[in-house]
Amino acid sequence: MLDKKYTAFSGRLVIIGFGSIGQGVLPLLLRHIDLNPDQITIITAELRGQQVAAEYGARFVETALTRENYRSVLEKWLGPGDFLLNVSVDVSSVALIELCRELGALYLDTCIEPWPGGYTDPNLPPAARSPPPRVAGRARARAGKGPRQRAPMHRIPRGVAPAR
What we know:
alpha/beta; Rossmann fold; 6-stranded parallel sheet; two-stranded parallel sheet; 28% helix
């Protein structure tokens, strides 16, 4: 039961960020999804976790994603039917959702994050930069852009903190 495979995934899996959550979820993904390590690419801003990625056979790319480079970096690794798992901070969830919609990739996030400064920019109204409710970011992510067409699923979470 502990090593039961619940589903198979034939696309590529890209994990953005590889801190505690990313390092903890990687072995669970490999344990419970029929997925080969060579299908997995980890893109992160720092070397933390590189040894863990190597232990499990996942590709490790040390590159900080920014407003200027996220599209060019991710377009190399994502396409139709692939899956982007975002467990990073300071990478815009809304920008990633829009990119995944364009590319036909699935998307899952641990929370709604803005680009750096999004929580502290005095030019934004308080509701748009308030971390606890993240109402503005969640609304933008749900609204999307462009015409409503059939697109891969994305999940807008409320965070990873345990329920009380």
